[in-house]
Amino acid sequence: MKSKGSIGLLAALLIIAGVVVTLENFGLMHGVSKHWPLLLIILGIGFSILYYNGQRQNHAIIWFATFWATIGLFFYYLVFTSWGRLATQWPVFLLIIGLSFLSLAWHCRKKIYFFSAVSFISLFLIFFLVFTISPGLWPLSMLFLGIDLLIINRWNQKQKFKNGEEL
């Protein structure tokens, strides 16, 4: 029954979106096209609902939910500021991937996802500092790499302690 309700809701959203965009195309509504990232946010929310209604078995769904919702928010930011900012703020895509892995790590508690999240978020920080603030900040990449290694090492030590292995 849940799938019939979900399909009906999706159908209603598509019909409403189609009518609204058609009305804007004929000049009967204005400003709707600025809100296209809302569709990505709704897609992310839809994946979240699918994950939580599906007994939480397919963890990849939560990755997609986080990815689409956060990329929709980032595109909203660009729509209302300037798409020209993408030339320097492209590292945000690395952050979005990192946040998606962090969400996945949170839900299924696997360290590979946590390591992936830490790596992507660190890459974001490195590239963001270099491309947005100053190219002279590239040595901070060594700092972030060192912090990554410490976090991964700490996580491994915790896992070994939990499993009763000697350190």
Kindly state the mean pLDDT as a whole number?
Answer: 83
Number of separate helices: 7
CA-atom Rg in angstroms? 21 Å
Share in β-strands: under 5%
Distance between the termini: 52 Å
Class derived from helix and strand content = mainly alpha
Poorly predicted tracts of residues: none
Number of separate structural domains? 1
Order of helices and strands: HHHHHHH
The general outline is flat
Helix content class? over 70%
**How many strand segments?**
0
Largest sheet: none
Name its key features.
77% helix
What does this structure look like?
This protein is mainly α. It has one domain. Helices cover 77% and strands 0% of the residues. The protein has seven helices and no strands. α3 runs antiparallel to α5 and α5 runs antiparallel to α6. The N and C termini lie far apart (52 Å). The model has no long low-confidence stretch (mean pLDDT 83).
Detail the topology: elements first, then pairings:
Elements lengths: L1 H24 L11 H17 L6 H21 L5 H4 L2 H17 L2 H23 L6 H23 L5
Helix pairs in contact: 2-3, 3-5, 5-6, 6-7
Concise structural overview:
This protein has about 170 residues and is an all-alpha fold. The chain has helices spanning about 1-25, 35-55, 60-80, 85-90, 90-110, 110-135, 140-160. It starts with a helix and ends in a 5-residue tail after the last helix.
